[in-house]
Amino acid sequence: MGRSDEVLVPGRDTAVARFALSRANEELVLAESSLRGERRVAWVRLALMALLSLSQGGIAHVTGEPLPPHDFQRVLAIVLYGLFSVVALLVLRRQRPHLRHARWLPVPTTVADTSFFAFMGWHAWARTGQFDAGMLGASMGMVLVFSVARFSWLHVLLSTTLSSVGYALVAGMSGHGTSSSTSFVVFCYVTLGLLIAMTNAEVGSMFLRLRRRDGLSRFLPKQVVERVMQSGDTSLQPVQREVTILFSDIRDFTMLSETLPPREVLELLDEYFGQMTHIVMTRGGIVNKFLGDGMLACWGVPDSSEDHAERAMRAALDMREKLGELNARRVLQGLSPLRIGIGLHTGVVAAGMLGGAEQHEYTVIGDAVNLASRVEGLTKVHGVDILVSESTWLRGGGDFTGRRLGETHVKGRREAVVVHALHGHVSGAPVEAPPPPARIASGS
Question: Which Pfam families does the UniProt record give (predicted)?
């Protein structure tokens, strides 16, 4: 059987295109986080002003030092910076997340913070004639500390530059800062700025990855999510490929559901699907969807594999074994055992995203899906629990035992379908990784 692996180009209005556009929302999320960070900085700025005003008198009272004289320039600077802090907080509280605002809002606040701390350092030297390197270094370092709440490396670069320039200017104007000491402080600022920028970038990236993974997991199988996280949105492009489809159904489920309360029916399906889904995923497949009491699984997408038919057949045998364990527990509980039918077919399908902007899913479409469902329906006709089509048997049945049941006509198809009853595996050995090439059986 030939193998096709063709990429289909989606239109502009497909679910894939809309999903790719949704990545722009990630920037809005960062903008929202940046706005919250700027609000926190505004509150810290106000608290800093309050502590600055109260600490002057409190420290002087404890240490017995004389209060610093109140001059017009110093008081004016504190009042203006305090007013700026209040206005900034009010503006930020009314602001809504916007990418453009997230880019420019930190600029005036960073400039104002740097200007205030630099002025206070210069003014202390101008008033007393003494250069307080510790106070200036710590106050200019506050500008860098504020940048921790900003996720943009440009804002961290701005804070680092202004802090370094502000310290160097005040130290140079005072005439007390040596070139070696000033260079050391600037070097520390640059090092701290680089560390903050790298940490912010890593935290932001990790946050977006976790958010995206959580969003994808809501409507994509685990394997598809992993592929998207590794390869990006292009991995969601529709592909045309040979796969093996498994369709299973619980026999007489309608009659069973009529005798049970809806909650017990839901609990039964939850336990059953939980066990069967684990088997499918363990064997390298994906559960495409649940259809009432039916399950549609697929092997060969999103990652292609040469042994998709063999893996699907092994999964079917595992499902038979697991159902026996479930039924043993049900019998002990006085409940009737479950019976299922499983049909497998190998053929070419189109696999990719399907749906609208509000709801989409990763699915497989093609005649192979319909035929797998028809093959499952034939299990009732032939009185067996697992049937595989001729294409699946030829693709992966070399290590399996079974019985050829011959040609059977199914509803909606002019050509007869050859099916095989799957009995078991020759060795019972698990599929190894990396998978070996598929072997073609010589007969049934």
Answer: Guanylate_cyc (PF00211)
